[in-house]
Design goal:
The structure is a homodimer of 446-residue chains. In chain A, 39% of the residues lie in helices and 20% in strands. Chain A is built from 16 helices and 17 strands. In chain A, helix 3 packs across helix 8. Chain A is globular and about 75 Å long. In chain A, 52% of the residues are buried.
Amino acid sequence: MAESIKKQITKVKMQCTALSSSSVEQRNDLLLQICKGLQQDRNVILEANAEDLRNASALSESVKSRLKLDEAKLDSVIESIEDVVAQDDPIGKVLARRLLDDNLLLEKISVPLGVIGMVFEARPDAFLQIVSLCLKSGNCLVLKGGKEANRTNHVLYESIKRSCRGSFAGENWLLLLESHEDVKRMLEADGLVDLIIPRGSYELISYVKENTRIPVLGHADGLCAMYVDRSAFVGKAVACALDSKINYPAACNSIENLIVHKDIAKEFLPIMAKAFSENNVLIVGDERVSSIIRCARATEADWDTEYLGLEISILMVDSIDEAIDFIAHHTSHHTDAIIAEDELAMRKFLTKVDSADVFANCSTRFADGYRFGLGAEVGISTSKIHARGPVGLEGLMSSKYILQGRGQIVQTYMGSMCRPFKHQKLSTEGVSQILNGIDGEEEEDE
Amino acid sequence: MAESIKKQITKVKMQCTALSSSSVEQRNDLLLQICKGLQQDRNVILEANAEDLRNASALSESVKSRLKLDEAKLDSVIESIEDVVAQDDPIGKVLARRLLDDNLLLEKISVPLGVIGMVFEARPDAFLQIVSLCLKSGNCLVLKGGKEANRTNHVLYESIKRSCRGSFAGENWLLLLESHEDVKRMLEADGLVDLIIPRGSYELISYVKENTRIPVLGHADGLCAMYVDRSAFVGKAVACALDSKINYPAACNSIENLIVHKDIAKEFLPIMAKAFSENNVLIVGDERVSSIIRCARATEADWDTEYLGLEISILMVDSIDEAIDFIAHHTSHHTDAIIAEDELAMRKFLTKVDSADVFANCSTRFADGYRFGLGAEVGISTSKIHARGPVGLEGLMSSKYILQGRGQIVQTYMGSMCRPFKHQKLSTEGVSQILNGIDGEEEEDE
């Protein structure tokens, strides 16, 4: 009988200390070992993927293109693992340093979260990315990929485990789940899993959010809006709105709603409608919009719909405040943008719109970890807790406080004749004293 | 019929933008206005508290001393509100700044979380502290204090609301709940309340954690341990262990378990036992400990018990690894300490123990926002998500990304002939460009 998932996740958790207390050299060496292993297992990986693809013949082209792992894609993902090797060590960064008193040094340092639970789509390249980011950041990993990639994932998993065997990390730091039932068990494993990162459909992410007490990093929907202010340059507005819609319509950072100030509507809408029409974007609009351009009338539901395709709903407003209010009630607070030349209007929008990303005079499609320069992206969070917006490696980190003294007690700092604290802020440059070792001088009891 | 709690909390949430987009001068002025109001209402506040105290005559002295709000305590809490006024503005801090390309500036800035839900004990001074910290940080607040303080809290609430009436914040940013039923409704209000901070008994905090999907900041238990290594100076170890136990036995950062290396046990234990006995601390020990000092034998349950009083369980280990393993399985990962002169042992402990606070050669009682120099403390978190350890004002903050361009679209940065990103890291000195206004230069469409 197979071991229960909870027992298997418990085994994963038991590897946390080995990973969190390893050196960056150990983790980088293992990452390179994994690359070597993948090279050696190249043929069996490509064969497994070819079989996954044969079984997926009925699926859409976009699913198949995500599923496909050919020579070139395998090379490029192995290269991206080498990029992860080149990155700075995320463990042991000094986030704050304060001398509480003589010989009483406080440091807040970054440490891995522990066990990450990841549920993602049928993308073998994403599998390898996730594994490398977790290993680099000293986190253990429980993961489940889309079932269409089961054969490929299984072969990748076996290859990685072979590379890990005998290393500081052992082979149990990583666990591949195989079924929806397994995912259910993982979602119940609070106390063992520290953070769940789901990627995929709205349904998947909503399911995860509703079925776990473990913190979830991610976003269920990407219902983004762009507001074209009365002060906007029409050319800029059309270019930005078009890019925000058609650059990748299925992306979470594409816009679904376009909000137009009444004073610019007559000039802007006909040009915008022409551009949309030339790019096969279907427009639905409110009454005033449809009196200026030819379009279907939007229903109430349209204002809350993530089309994920070539469709957009357009609304006319009397003021920027009305636009901000619409955004507060209808978007998913992922990414919302204003196009305006009036500085006050822009500042008002950037200040008052409470979304993870708030943009002025550019496409919403810039909302992305790579474009933001964060390096690898682990997800985009619409939660206000822990991490918000595109999240890089730091989203996989927690912190701990280290306090090093020479025998100090709190009683000394209490009462009317107490010794005062110094609370001297120190530079956070350099590595933590614990990684560096303290000065080593031994002295008598004070 | 009274308005439903959900409706009332919805009204609170509607004030979020007014608070988050206010200036620090507005918030400081209102805080000073609140101080003035409290001075004016001094007599009615003290009278209400006197009545609460009369009704609490059957309660313990410690509860009554927390409940009591006399002239001196009211003065000191009003002073502490003035300290909050003096603090830096936590809103709009630039957490990261990066030039993605020419005229495409990314800033990550601190913003309020939104609505904080606070449940706390019968301490009128804590009520005022919480209100001032939330207002300073631009957060709306729903709170419920211990019922023993109901009259005092109600009078304080009315006084504060009077001061807020007509201000930028209005009077609805703050809501006082009156019953346990109300708290239940608040715990169900996910989507309206962004973070719950419970303070009080283990039962209360466990209840909150088990009955809400809203993130909870705090710790249910404080089961802390101290390990005395073979390399420890006995004098230091005895002083630190004694302070960690007796300085405030009911505190979450007091120790419940003392772990002693076998090589130092014969020298250390008799002196430690004498010190504990002189301070009325009851010792339970394992078999080996009780063969050296006179003490009751610990049961299995003792290793997982937070005594919150003058009792301690002592365990002997053969190695530091055994101590680290004990801590991994038995403490609540709040604050754990090592006493050692051996630098390697100390570094091993600081690295491998995965607790919010890990100390070397000092009392565990230092684990506290004030002693850490964080200014006001909103709680101590044992969660690894969002904030860990003693949490200052930054625990009440989230962030948002602001991206300001001149009409850039993503298409420009894609494909084989694409324009590359600059991703130039800039200093985070100075306030955000949105608070400062951008350069104001108007230019033609690019």
